[in-house]
Amino acid sequence: MNASTASAQMRSHWVQEKLFLGMTFRDYIRSNYTPFNGVVLCILIVGIPVIIYRLIYGLGPSTNLSDNNPWGIWIGFDMLCGVALAAGGFVIGTAVHLMGMKDYGFLFRPAVLTGFLGYLFAIIALTFDLGRYYRIPYPMVVSWGVNSVLFLVAWHVALYLTCQFVEWCPAIWEWLHMKKLRSIFMKATLGATIFGVCLSMLHQSALGSIFLLMPEKLHPLWYSEYIPLWFFMSAIVGGLVMTIIESMASHKIFEHQIKSHDPERLDRVTLGLGKATAVGLFAYFFMKVVGIAHGNSWRYLDTGYGYWYLVEVIGFVLIPALGMTYAVQNKLVSMVRGWAIVTALGIILNRLNHSIIAFNWHLPWEDRYVPHWMEVVLTVTVITIGILTFRWIMNRMPILYDHPDFEPEQH
Amino acid sequence: MDAKRRDFLKVLTGAGIAALLGPGEKVLADVATLPGYPNQFGVLVDTTVCIGCRRCEWACKEWNKLPNQKSLKEYEKDRSVFDRIRRTHADTYTVVNRFPNPRDARKPIYVKKQCMHCYEPGCASSCFVKAFTKQPVGAVTYDASLCVGCRYCMAACPFDIPAYQYYDPFTPEVTKCTFCFDRITKEGGVPACVEICPVETMTFGRRSDLIELAHKKIRDNPGKYVNHVYGEREVGGTSWLYLSAVPFHLIGFRTDLGTVPIPTFGKPFLSLVAPVFIAIPALCMGFYSFKKRRDRLAEKEIQSVLESKEGKR
Description:
heterodimer, A: mainly alpha, Formate dehydrogenase/DMSO reductase fold, globular, B: alpha+beta, Alpha-Beta Plaits, three-stranded mixed beta sheet
């Protein structure tokens, strides 16, 4: 009797420590009365019913998809942008674990966590887009359409999600004080990183290669044999700038967690990432120019779509590249962060151009796709739940700091 | 595999051996440009004949038991549908559209639209669960029991044919013309639309014969047709073929599709998969061991410097 009360007490203690951040349940609830959570609540009150509506009534009433426009923002934004901007885990993993850039080591865990959640929620959003979402494992277990680029994407995204989970796992085991599991997973990190590099290279470019089958639907300024290369290069840049943005935000929001908070170290690393971004952007710009030259699509530049293309490639690639170079040379850290945001917006613009704006460009305006409000609300809801998950984990697991009971990770 | 296909493969093997043995370059070239299943069926549509009675639309719905069916009379009477250009939808596998005739304004041109049944279908190469099959008889069929509903096939179709049952919340399917697969696989069977046509706009038969027939028609009637059989080479060739009196872009056809089969565009990328998985881990491991070595050497150096300092003291 006594023993069971003790274990029950232990359990409630565990719940209090691990889940309620050491507070009692009532205090924990009270601590959540914040303006931010108020906004979140409003989003969820509208968003959750929209998700249920989509699941019950189908794609027809809840989206503006049509027979001419089979894909909307759930593919173009949630999936394409989500995956491109979640490349941080792979970029930082390569830098830290393979190239031995130890001073970037403290970015590894937050980058992997962001990457993991980015992929996870991109897949969740995709689920709502699939007509028969309950068949999502079919390409893995029921029928292999090996000729399809999408088959490659499905497999690689699933495998890469596993890879990132493995890379992130040590933080979970530290949180739960499971030493043995942690050491096993620590050993798997290198393997997961190398496997992750292969998978990322292929599926990031494969997401672009999906459009290779649509030469007659995608505007020639965006259609090119170089699409895989463009998507891969811009994903690297996306990973870099998202790491800059995410580290800025989380070091501000979760500053209290880091005992040895050293803003100078973060600034130094941000400058390094900015430098890599600038190089990446110049390379990407060059690839874009080569693509146009290769397809000899110059004559399209002096059209409406051409001007829009120039906005993307000059305004959101070349200018950020120059701006980033200037900021790095003059060690202007907040300017680096500013250009990082512009670059991230540019990548979003690029993915939307490929999937929506320059897609079906031959169709008259009345047959073109404009998202339904429910599509937008569902997207916002999924992102909000993603942010909540990120915060929940950040508040509990040793992501930004080294757990005091464990040896810090060796890179 | 039917006997004809087996024979064909025998011929193929023979050609391969001949190519290996000697001056067989020409044979080898034939193999490289393999024109799909031999003896596959096709339909030749002569758009100069069609009167726009829409009986084919009715027959299609009737045979495939599609929803929103109306009586045959209503189909023939309702001319207002021609006011706008229509496409295929979830409940309609085929539509007839009307286009103004630049040669004779009193005689508009009617064009039937349905799946073209490509030799190398874009839909089939896009599908990640292999729900589409190019059948040896020529039909491109769809297996709803595999479909996940990603709708990539709709995006990958150069003719904008596959449609989706967006308003079915739980078991939506992609819909498209089946080439009446269940009819044409039976001896003497022809598609429902071909059978009902009162003016013989459509001719069903072996595709190779139809190509010959089409060119013969063009030759024998100088000035009647433009000298092009749409579908003979478009996106690598289609089972359905069209003849027209006016340039094809005037009657709703895309003439910028080129002759390369859609799957070909994705192939170079897919062939990258194996090299990446071979080369990248090797490179990564190399990188990693160089890094380890560099660290070890640096450590040694520090140690030796420290030791020599200690020794001096």
